[in-house]
Amino acid sequence: MSALVIEGSQWGDEGKGKITDYFSQEADVVVRSQGGNNAGHTITINNEKFALRSIPSGIFNPKIKNILANGMVINPKQLLEELHGLEARGIKDYKLYISNRAHIVLPYHEMLDSAYEAYKGSHKIGTTKRGVGPCYSDKINRIGIRVGNFIDEDDFRKCLVEALKIKNEELKMLGLEQMNVDDIFNEYKEYAKEIKKYVCDTSLLIEEELEKGSKVLFEGAQGAMLCLDHGTYPYVTSSSPTGSAVPINCGVSPKSINSILGICKAYTTRVGEGPFPTEIEGDLAHYIRERGHEYGTVTKRPRRIGWLDCVALNYARRVSGIDYLAITLLDVLTGLDEINICYAYKVDGKIINYMPATLKELKKVKPVYMKLAGWSDDISNAKSFEELPSNTKTYIKAIEELTKAKVAIISVGADRCQTIKVKEIF
Ligand code: GDP
Ligand code: IMO
Ligand code: MG
Prior knowledge:
The protein is α/β, with parallel strands linked by helices. The chain is built from 13 helices and 21 strands.
């Protein structure tokens, strides 16, 4: 039995899509655990680039069962556009399953996402405005519409009438136009008809597969530092991207998971507002941003750039149960004379090794760096750890020492083939 969790261990965009696709060559099942179309997972196969939003990264392998789990929020209109887009590019032979317990993102969620951001003004979160937060709020508030309700026309209409009673009050309060049941119902019932064939109890399906001995990958969206509970609240997403949340998000026993792989960029990026202790600006940030094409897949915003933060990473390892790390975008650092790694924070003159919980404390954090020599040799064609320049190896070993996690994968380029397996974990 093999069940591997692939989790973002920073603030998202660590290369989860690339690494999931890499392991998908050997997997039977890929389960997307949480989030929605706020995610953008880029996959490059033989120089052809795909950006997935809600669809699991196993979709390119016709034998894989791709599952959208109960922890997700699904925008049916966007999901169908994404599917049709893939089909138009020749990806026609796929297996897709959607949890009847996942929640549906509707137009009022997107409107409210933008409206709350505008209302917050300078305190805005910098969300992707895809309605993900408002949809999860409705789930918690028990006025959400689940996929199981959505695909039953009568049920969908009843749920929509009830939800809009409250949602229209909210829209009114924010000075927005109210929404009409029939307008949404008539458009969305058609999407429901189209997705119905994919809907099932995915918890049961995953259990069956695990019992059969299938190889299952759980693909997270976002990253641990964007976790609603453990991230830099309130500058977070509205779900838990941690490996420890996978059992809840997918309806499986915690005992069925064998290993958790934290995907970690060789530096750090963040999109949107919020604390970022190791952030750098100026020419150095520009160099890394351009080499790493660090612009949002979903919103095209330039990503903020920083050095690798091992205080945050160590925290992510601890709260998520990360066993191994995949270090991605290592090639991007080629050409730098010196590379910094943050191993502690200084707050009011005191050295700390933990992640402060409040924004007030986080604002005072000054990173404490270890300085390592860079490398100039091109590493993008390296096929083994041994082949890497000695300064690159020193960098990887420093990450292992500071995070107490073993590096199992090293990624030296966007393409599937630019991946070095250091340890067999799946
Ligand atoms: P995800 O959201 O975690 O799947 O990550 P994104 O796809 O949003 O962002 C990662 C970006 O880095 C994508 O454009 C990938 O194609 C690219 N990428 C992934 N691994 C590597 C790597 O090792 N080197 C380089 N240069 N690019 C990579
Ligand atoms: P992947 O899966 C990076 C960020 C947004 C914002 C915050 C809340 O590609 O790594 P939301 O729309 O979720 O309410 O926004 O979370 N965010 C991401 N940042 N990668 C992502 O996904 C993200 N999904 C959300 O920028 O700061
Ligand atoms: Mg992304």
